[in-house]
Amino acid sequence: MTDLNTIIEWAGNSIYFFQALGAIYGIYCTVVVLRRISEKRFSNSATAEAFLTEVDEQLKKRDFEAIAEICDSPPFWAKAVPQLILVALANRQRPMSKLRQILAEKFERDVIADIEYRVAGINTVVKSEPMLGLLGTVAGMISAFGKIAAKQKTGSDPSMLASDISLALITTAVGLVVAIPLIMVGAVIHVRLSKMQDSVQDHLSHFLESLDVALAPASKKDRPARMTNDE
Q1: Which domain holds residue 146?
Q2: The whole model's pTM is what?
């Protein structure tokens, strides 16, 4: 029985180590995700509008090399929209429906998948920390009641073990202290990720519409003007 109590005490104390590892990993994933989202989205709407305006001007000239240089310039080379525009330019001869599919798959694979992988790590920590805390508490309670049983045989006061029982509850408290902030951070991440997806979709739609007009045959571009003159 003594060996079993020793093992239980050792397992209970090791819970703190695993909780610390979980907390560190959760913080790491949070920092990586927030930085990743910040890198991939424009800092503000004014920057995005200025970029799209500059790209539109080059599209009117059909200067695709200049657009590529803009997208590869230091302010934009890490952003999602400029990198997707480079993919669009490389595949501009494809039908527009196919081009949209390529861009959607590229965005999902290279940006969203990596972020969701890190978010899954945060969710794992959120779920595992309280469970580890509960496991530590159960182990601590088993050890404490084992000591109570042993001391009762010798006539000792069981109330002396109250400190051991309270210590056993600390692991649950630690698990909640780690999980609750990560839950709140996870909500913030989901909001920022949704906003980034919406903005990327809007900006790409604007670019693809402009690209479609730029690639349209001259006769197709002039058709509305001729129809107006005929009327």
Answers
A1: 2-230
A2: 0.78
